[in-house]
Write a structure and sequence with these properties.
mainly alpha; two-stranded antiparallel sheet
Amino acid sequence: MVLENVQRALGEAVRSKVAGPDADTRAGQIWGKPGPRWFRPEDPVWRVHEDASMFPGGIAALLLQTLHPLAMAGVAGHSGYRSDPWGRLTRTSDYIATTTYATIPDAEALIERVRARHDQVRGKDYRGRPYRASDPELLAWVHAAEIQAFLWAHQAYGRAPLSPREADLYVEQAGLPAAKLGVPDPPCSVAELTGVIEGMRPRLEVSPEALDTVDFLLRTPPVSGAAQYGYRLLAYGAVAVLPDWVRSMLGIALPELGIPLASGLGRFGTAAVRWGLAGVQNRRSASPAARARQAGRDGHQRDHGAQGDRDAETGQGADL
């Protein structure tokens, strides 16, 4: 019972940071609402986005995305990642969850709201070059960097790495909502994804905002106490999956012999998150009636201290 309580406490702590205080309500809206969906549980995009490898993958994505100075200027000027980092994480995870798992009307409605927000985000970077969040090139870079980092992390730390065919399908499926958001011709294979990243490299540079973000993510993250140790394990894992040229541009020192160590730490941190989330009841895959029954069990346990029945539907991935 002590171990189960520790497991559930860890899972709830992680879940509340990622999904916010209304995680159960949003889970019911995203997974419990009937209607047609773009993807199925067996699809690669579903499997990747529900796995705990998304935690180091998300950090790696942010580090990679910083290298486009115009995209980085938009993040620094409009996202509020420093003043409200957990709020930004919640919004991002909600977008990924909605466009991956929710009904098609709900996913399309959210995409339209994000598109409208992008139309309002504009400014100038540190060199005075104008940017707008709706710029197709910026959208293409953010999408490619995100999906590439998620794939790197999943192949390194995921419960079940994808086969080459499944990896191609993942890239293709992730491009469906991206195209609706305004990404022109999203890549449909790993080779095409690599081509987008490589084709963008001549326009990448390290801006002051990028260095500030690296410092924030790797040296002064918004966590305290014991959570710092868990976060740093995930951060090591994120750094380990980045290519040498990315680490070099961002000034992240990781000696060659340190890569296996950082990768091992990342694997351990991801496994710990996966274990913790497995102790949280998985309401996203349960019917509304099953969620109501489980809520009754939870209340009975709190009120009377009874052990209660362990529900068969426990979370096995990142309950975003």
